[in-house]
Design goal:
By secondary structure, the chain is an alpha/beta fold. A hairpin with a 6-residue loop joins strand 13 and strand 14 (351-354).
Amino acid sequence: MTLLNSGHVDTFCRDNLPPLHQWPELNANQYAYPNQLNVAVELTDNMVERGFGDHIALIGNGRMRTYKELSDWSNRLAHALVDDYDIQPGNRILIRAANNPALVACWLAATKVGAVVVNTMPMLRAGELSKIIDLAQIKLALCDTRLMDEMDICAKSSDILQQVVGFDGTANFDAELDRTALNKPVRFQAVATSADDVALLGFTSGTTGKPKATMHFHRDLLIIADGYAREILQVTPDDVFVGSPPLAFTFGLGGLAIFPLRFGATAILLETASPTEMIEIIETYKATICFTSPTAYRVMLGAMDEGADLSSLRIAVSAGETLPATVFEDWQTKTGKTMLDGIGATEMLHIFMSNRVGDAHPACTGKPVSGYQAKIVDEKMQEMPRGQVGKLAVRGPTGCRYLNDERQANYVVDGWNLTGDAFFQDKDGYFHFAARTDDMILSSGYNIAGPEVEACLLGHDAVLECAVIGTADEHRGQLVNAYVVLNKTYHASDELILKLQNYVKNTIAPYKYPRLVHFIDALPKTETGKIQRFKLKDL
């Protein structure tokens, strides 16, 4: 494989790509992109040229932005980054904000000037930000002025970070970056980055210890739209997107920015996307595509019983946690529409396997998106018989490239990406999630998938949410340990524990029942809704 001529002056990212022999096997032949490609131009300036200038691109913080306004806004910011902050192509820029249009404008501007963007979550503390800055060698950070405290602490202790520039996330344009950009031209000649120049560093979510940075090219950001979004979501300019994943994660950036902007659709950005707020937004703006967690969909199902009108939604994408069969079936029954379960990874950039509208099944993750291949393998990378649980291996047009990280050799084996998920494939070729490979519980010689026990417990009326982990035990190796959040009409008691245990015994194989049950007020989660099971082990 030979890389194209880079448009970067600062060659840090290309210098720190994994050696080519450690890359996954990539097949992007179905996508005919030019050698010179800037994804931000494709999503803004080129959309205006195609006639979408007056279409609404973004809604957030009380304002609507057309494609022309977004193009002009990001171009002014791009001028400021080059003229006033001396950004060179290839420099890394950290952006810190909640989901709002200003974050999107900053991301697009930084991408237009050829920078490599690192979007970060508002909840990160100075210590966590410092690890990211050190790893990616970031000299400039753009920060929503409402979130400056941790950024300032980080800057004072960092030998690398040289500038922190504030922007106004409330859309009032009352911060340094906004004032600097105010009188800049609305046209900007974007840097001619190559299709395989790094555009984005995505830091893995939910990790402990040293963070990992995944490296994604300009072409990759279009591939996820031209692949998954076009094939599975079948996005049109009439679609209105809403959801809860942070734009700081590649899943959120794809679902709430790249996908809608690629097709002339509209994205509604919510800084605090609680289920109640999303319900109100869906009703107000007649949203058609929603990305959120199974827990939020359970709340929406209850709201529909009380009169909420979510009939505008044509697609509900479940993300963050395993989709319980009961939620899938209840949604289908109440709405007559399919809930799409899929699997993605920060390393793969976005969803690479999914159910389809008209071809979706409960407790099933579907089949690979076009261009991707998947198989179930054992420890020696040998493909396993249908029906047997093993490691999920996948390859396609996107894949894992860690920034200067020895863990690359663990994730990519023989050209295949090993996602860390245990799956099985049924006789009809559909893939089914069993557990994260580190969520498998070995008890008295039995392999027990924690998510299967969780899905069973969620079928009981008393259970609002739950998480199942393995707890060390001298006699059995591990015990199945359930942490349960109860519905409001139920109260914790020994009698209820026994009822839940018997329910599991009578629903799935009895040896899988939770020998330990703990009632808690809330499960620890990331901002994307993923349960942080490692925290449960400390309770």
